[in-house]
């Protein structure tokens, strides 16, 4: 009952192309798309998603870390790749070797990059990040962006190719803070333009801002969670029709009847109050099924919902199937996705857990095989 034989994340690449086409049609012709494929493409598999996204017309890829960009280059991906986080000193040479575009927001880092560029007789394009209110990374305060880029211009081997910021609250009903961040960013752009220093690429919009804040589109947008067919939050209006890529599946490993009074799983947190039919699903929290769904979650079997009973284990969990006729070993179990007329969405699971769809997707572990298809 090894995990790889029973479990799979099925990823529909036609749905990926559909989502990209929807956004391409929604955006103006002069605005390119960056597909954000960090965190192994939000659990979908970065290499396959990157290839298919590029074939569907995206211009850039975005990753969090240098090693993610290196992996894509080693897989034969040749498009521009932006790295959002700062490189470690020992990763600087990798930026040059693998043609990765770093994010820059300190002169300390810029100076290191410049010295490496001079040593290599190279020119390294960089994107300058401005912190307009997210509070993580970026030139801060935003008003310092102009003197920062002035100083950057004087460093040999460095070319400010892009300017960007990131919104903290674009997926919330209250639009005021995003409006404030956008106002700050527009002021930076205006000052840079007046000085003749605005980089050619400007981007700010994530998935939520693409859908809610057209003033943030500029000439590049960063498409993350909605690339994978999910709206950023319930507050974001459904302006385009998205299709989720991923269906998470397992199969029934064992079915048995237990008498009333039988305790099930660790801690005996579930005790059958009557005779019950119990099925074992060989999928656990090591595969990415959150332990907080113990005695709370549901899955689909034969097109019907089956409740999780007892504690979710590292490699298995139990469901009750009394109400579903004919359940037998080998039957398909849908953990996230659609079966028949029923659906258990990633958003539903996230709401049960008190979290977001991003986390649910990213938590699907690498021991679950990703299976790609077009259909």
Estimated radius of gyration = 24 Å
Q: Distance between the terminal alpha carbons, to the nearest Å?
A: 29 Å
CATH class annotation of the largest domain: Alpha Beta
Largest sheet: 10 strands, mixed
Strand content: 15-25%
Quick one: CATH superfamily of the largest domain?
A: Alanine racemase
User: Quick one: overall form?
Assistant: elongated
Number of domains: 2
CATH topology name of the largest domain: TIM Barrel
Tell me what the CATH architecture of the largest domain is.
Alpha-Beta Barrel
Q: Can you count the beta strands?
A: 20
Average predicted confidence as pLDDT? 97
Count of alpha/pi helices? 12
Structural class based on helices, strands and sheet pairing:
alpha/beta
Helix content range: 25-40%
Contiguous uncertain segments of 5+ residues: none
Short description:
The chain is α/β, with parallel strands linked by helices and 375 residues long. It has two domains: 198 residues, TIM Barrel (Alpha-Beta Barrel); 128 residues, Beta Barrel (Lyase, Ornithine Decarboxylase, Chain A, domain 1). 30% of the residues lie in helices and 24% in strands.
